[in-house]
């Protein structure tokens, strides 16, 4: 594959990125449940393009630690500012919602809480524990902040033994200051490397957004770094600009065939599962991944078939 700087840039949104509007009985049930429990989802806060598909199947990624982030990333539509105090009852409401949905796999992520030394890690741990208590057999995936590279904060989460521990690098090192100025590439790698060292049985996961001005070789370099950290699951998706006034523009739309090529490259590098496509987001097909790969739960050979190029 040639360096993508030599390719013609596409700035008009192509047909393969069209999505349907969320609707239907399951969508309405989940929306009502979340409002009743005073919970947030990253699906709504980040305007995920897969919300219709996932909510229609009664799956959602819970957003904990409130809905106000202490960081101001140039790609993210989550609100930024001074967050409310930690809600210690939130894990109970998350667990009760998991039970109400009768989930087999729950995905939990959060805003950044940099005002706290622990970054909110105890709430992640408590969510895992309460889901296990209230919905036995439900696997848990957490998509965590970098906790500024704090090993102590990460250990709080790892001690609760989620089946999957995820942290997205989001972009290539050269663009970190532009895309997520308060983050550090080294923090991301440290988080993923330490997680695997703390508990090798916990699957680790990371992902990239494409279309922010990265070069093809930079993508491959990040993939190699993630494999060096022992990352098991890798996701690649197209960046979509949430708001023209507040967020970075799309520099390039990658066609499906290039995502397919990167998927195969990922498998050749040794990732155990690669989700790569224009509309792929971190939790896309998460339940299939955990059923196929986690040594902590019985495998499901019928439902869990890794995607191929």
From TrEMBL:
EC number: 2.8.1.8
Cofactor, how bound (note): Binds 2 [4Fe-4S] clusters per subunit. One cluster is coordinated with 3 cysteines and an exchangeable S-adenosyl-L-methionine.
Subcellular location, principal: cytoplasm
GO cellular component terms attached to this protein's record: cytoplasm
Metabolic or biological pathway: Protein modification; protein lipoylation via endogenous pathway; protein N(6)-(lipoyl)lysine from octanoyl-[acyl-carrier-protein]: step 2/2
Annotated catalysed reactions: [[Fe-S] cluster scaffold protein carrying a second [4Fe-4S](2+) cluster] + N(6)-octanoyl-L-lysyl-[protein] + 2 oxidized [2Fe-2S]-[ferredoxin] + 2 S-adenosyl-L-methionine + 4 H(+) = [[Fe-S] cluster scaffold protein] + N(6)-[(R)-dihydrolipoyl]-L-lysyl-[protein] + 4 Fe(3+) + 2 hydrogen sulfide + 2 5'-deoxyadenosine + 2 L-methionine + 2 reduced [2Fe-2S]-[ferredoxin]
Cofactor requirement: [4Fe-4S] cluster
Tagged with keyword Cytoplasm: yes
Domain Radical SAM core stretches: 55-272
GO BP terms, alphabetized: protein lipoylation
UniProt keywords, alphabetically: 4Fe-4S, Cytoplasm, Iron, Iron-sulfur, Metal-binding, S-adenosyl-L-methionine, Transferase
Ligand binding ([4Fe-4S] cluster 1): 43, 48, 54, 283
Domain of life of the organism encoding this protein: Bacteria
GO MF term (any one): 4 iron, 4 sulfur cluster binding
InterPro entries, alphabetized: Aldolase_TIM (IPR013785), Elp3/MiaA/NifB-like_rSAM (IPR006638), LIAS_N (IPR031691), Lipoyl_synth (IPR003698), rSAM (IPR007197), rSAM_sf (IPR058240)
Top EC group: transferase
Pfam families: LIAS_N (PF16881), Radical_SAM (PF04055)
Keyword S-adenosyl-L-methionine: yes
Annotated signal sequence range: none
Residue numbers binding [4Fe-4S] cluster 2: 69, 73, 76
Compartment annotation: Cytoplasm
Recorded family membership: Belongs to the radical SAM superfamily. Lipoyl synthase family.
Protein name (Swiss-Prot/TrEMBL): Lipoyl synthase
Organism: Vecturithrix granuli
Name of the coding gene: lipA
């Amino acid at each position: 594959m040639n360096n993508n700087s030599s390719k013609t840039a596409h700035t008009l949104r192509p047909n393969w990125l069209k999505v349907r509007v969320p609707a239907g009985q399951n969508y309405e049930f989940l929306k009502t449940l979340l409002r009743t429990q005073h919970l947030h989802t990253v699906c709504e806060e980040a305007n995920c393009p897969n919300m219709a598909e996932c909510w229609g199947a009664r799956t959602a990624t819970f957003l904990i630690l409130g809905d106000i982030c202490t960081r101001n990333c140039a790609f993210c539509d989550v609100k930024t500012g001074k967050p409310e105090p930690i809600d210690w009852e939130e894990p109970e409401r998350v667990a009760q919602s998991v039970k109400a949905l009768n989930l087999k796999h729950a995905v939990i992520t959060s805003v950044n809480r940099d005002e706290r030394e622990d970054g909110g890690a105890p709430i992640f741990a408590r969510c895992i524990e309460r889901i296990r208590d209230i919905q036995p057999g439900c696997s848990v995936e957490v998509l965590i902040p970098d906790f500024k590279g704090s090993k102590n904060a990460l250990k709080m989460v790892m001690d609760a033994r989620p089946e999957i521990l995820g942290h997205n690098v989001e972009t290539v090192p050269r663009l970190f200051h532009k895309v997520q100025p308060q983050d550090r590439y080294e923090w991301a790698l440290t988080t993923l490397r330490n997680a695997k060292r703390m508990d090798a049985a916990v699957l680790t996961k990371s992902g990239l957004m494409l279309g922010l001005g990265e070069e093809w070789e930079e993508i491959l370099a990040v993939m190699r770094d993630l494999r060096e950290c022992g990352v098991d699951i890798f996701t690649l998706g197209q960046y979509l600009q949430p708001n023209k006034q507040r967020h970075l523009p799309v520099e390039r739309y990658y066609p499906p065939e290039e995502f397919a090529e990167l998927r195969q490259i990922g498998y050749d590098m040794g990732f155990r599962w690669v989700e790569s496509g224009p509309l792929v987001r971190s939790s896309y097909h998460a339940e299939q991944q955990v059923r196929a790969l986690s040594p902590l739960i019985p495998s499901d050979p019928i439902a869990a078939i890794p995607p191929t190029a």
